[in-house]
Amino acid sequence: MKLYCLPGACSLADHIVLQWIGAPHQIEVVPRDQLHGEFLKVNPAGAVPALLLDDGTLVTQNIAILDYLAQLKPEAKLFGDGTAVSRAQVLRWTAFLNADVHKNFSPLFSAPRFVDGEDAQANLKTKAIERLQTQFAILNTQIGSGTWLVDDRRSVADPYLYVLLRWARGMKMDLSAHANLNRFFDHMGSDAGVKAALTAENLS
Ligand SMILES: N[C@@H](CCC(=O)N[C@@H](CS)C(=O)NCC(=O)O)C(=O)O
What is the Å distance from ligand 1's center to 56 Cα? Predict the structure, then answer.
């Protein structure tokens, strides 16, 4: 199978899970200027991640890809321990990351897509950062003194959270109030699968 990605984008979460399940795969970096050009033939939404399966099936949408990858190796329990309630908890937090937290980065990466004018864009960014701080506080509480985001077991939610924290750090957001998240970030950074995915994407 082939994962289409942009280095460091949300596709890094899927890349880490590929490492964790040890599935044979190829990584194809989509040149940014082709996302809304040639790549539209692959994914009409012009977004990564996209996963091309060996039978030609294309899977898009991060949660669908993470779910598919987790199902390839159920014994790794990356989407819960097999019970409905455990699966719901992993889905709950992964959905929060994907649908709520991730989208608040969009104004920071591409404010001109949302509003015109420097003042309006600066204002939008300030509001987005305020919302992210509230959401990071929720995530910080959820991790507590534990190691993983959900149920003391590593899951597909963890690489997603790692990617979002990596973005926040890259933007020099003040994360000093979120000690549990900072501990989580360092722990994830020392993981062999995370390191392998970062190296393969030419990130340090
Ligand atoms: N809802 C999509 C969102 C994917 C998404 O926002 N991908 C970003 C990278 S993190 C992207 O490809 N953006 C390109 C663009 O919007 O031009 C998913 O969950 O897969």
Answer: 21
> Domain 84-191 is in which class?
mainly alpha
- In angstroms, rounded to a whole number, what is the distance separating the alpha carbons of residues 21 and 69? 8
Q: How confident is the prediction for the chain on average, in pLDDT?
A: 97
Cβ–Cβ < 8 Å for 31, 6: no
Residue 80 DSSP SS3: strand
CA distances from 32 to 12, 15, 109, 123, 166 (A): 15, 18, 13, 27, 19
Domains in the chain: boundaries: 2-77+194-200, 84-191
The DSSP bridge pattern shows strands 26-29 and 58-60 to be unpaired
3-state secondary structure of 132: helix
What is the token pair recorded at 54?
Answer: 């060996």
pLDDT tens track for 128-149: 999 999 999 999 999 999 999 9
pLDDT tens-digit readout, 97-112: 999 999 999 999 999 9
Asked whether the whole model's pTM tops 0.90, one would answer yes
Q: Whose CA is nearest to atom 20 of ligand 1?
A: 61
Q: How far apart are CA 11 and CA 25, in angstroms?
A: 14
Among protein residues, the one with the nearest Cα to ligand 1's atom 18 is 61
Question: How many CA atoms lie within 13 Å of 197's alpha carbon, on the beta-carbon side?
Answer: 30
Name which CATH class applies to 2-77+194-200: alpha beta
Find the largest Cα–Cα distance for the chain. Answer: 51
